[in-house]
Amino acid sequence: MIRNDIKQLAAYHVPDADGLIKLDAMENPYPLPDALRRQWAERLAQAQVNRYPDAGMHDLRAAIAEREGVKPEQVLLGNGSDEIIQMALIAADSGACVIPQPTFVMYELISRWLKRPVATVPLGKGFSLDAEAFLRVCAREKAAIAFLACPNNPTGNLWPRDTVRQIADNFRGLLVIDEAYRPFAETTHADLISPHAIVLRTFSKLGLAGLRVGYALGCADTIEALGKVRLPYNINSLSQLSLAFFLEHFDVFEQQAASIRAERGRLMAALLAMDEVEVFPSQTNFLLMRVPDADAAFEGLKARGILVKNLHGAGDVLKQCLRVTVGLPEENDRFIEALKEIVRETAASA
Ligand SMILES: Cc1ncc(COP(=O)(O)O)c(C=O)c1O
Q: How far is the CA of 180 from the centre of ligand 1 (A)?
């Protein structure tokens, strides 16, 4: 009835965060300003929910295209960038999907849904990526598609532009350069767009995770082809209306991203000052750190009302690692105080 390999899969797990300070999912912690929230509600009241949504979304794509300096036909909208990852994996030629290890889990998970073989290229020291090794695996596996998250999740680092360029210049399948964390990296690889490479973006990390809207930028032919495996009406009317409204007020989200970047620096400095914690450089809205006992730290933080992501058990490179999303200043203070306490307790009981 149901494929055996699907039954064996571990489902994407979303932990219950009820009553906890939520620092596990790379969301923007800042709420919408009240005045903006009221205007948004007025705009939403115009939604014609008895009708199907605008299927082609030309105006919305044109608004995004204008911001990005491309043509509307170079923009594809998805129900989160997750959906575009799925569209790319459906539409690409048959052949393996090549990804660095570790990276964003959905590349592998969706490949498995689609019975597409996956080959991984382990990251090196400092989570570095060896472009030649990556290209060798692509050739060996006859890869049809590859993903590079720039910056990478969960490691937080951004590979040098030349590394990404070397892969983009030489890979002959479809390269998806995933820039989900672009607002925190302040750099783009959009100049690498070609018939072989698309760039993926999302509004989720900027403060609109609940809308579920992501987009791809690419050559018009590639975008048109990918659009053929898009479910009709994939972006619902409320999300379309909301996004059109928020694009008119985008400075709010850009300012919040700047505050998050500043807070990231403060959080990083506090973690660097803790001898027991090794914290890794980040160009994202989260920090990856290695602690003496990740399981104990995760549980200890949870007991103190803070939810982070425990990556211990997700492969050797992430041994004893936790990932914490940059929160509000007071949330970050609580996290630091709690972690200090836990690390002291662990040292005392060792
Ligand atoms: C690298 C990367 N790409 C894509 C996504 C998915 O984002 P969206 O909310 O747009 O589906 C995430 C979410 O964590 C991510 O880390």
A: 6
- As given in the structure block, the two tokens for residue 321 are 């690692």
Residue nearest to atom 2 of ligand 1 (CA): 180
> Quick check: 265 pLDDT over 90?
yes
| Ligand 1 contact, 263 CB (< 6 A) | no
pLDDT in tens, 65-117: 999 999 999 999 999 999 999 999 999 999 999 999 999 999 999 999 999 99
Q: Which residues fall within 8 angstroms of residue 299, CB to CB, at 6 or more apart?
A: none
CA distance 75 to 223: 7
Is 26 a pocket residue for ligand 1 (Cβ < 6 Å)?
yes
pLDDT band, very low/low/confident/very high, at 316 (cuts 50, 70, 90)? confident
Kindly state if the Cβ of 153 falls inside 6 Å of ligand 1.
yes
State the DSSP string of 269-301: HHHHT-TT-EE---SSSEEEEE-S-HHHHHHHH
253 contacts 206 by C-beta, under 8 angstroms: yes
Cβ of 177 less than 6 Å from ligand 1: no
Q: Which domains does the chain have, with CATH numbers?
A: 4-30+251-349 (3.90.1150.10), 47-248 (3.40.640.10)
| pTM score, whole prediction | 0.97
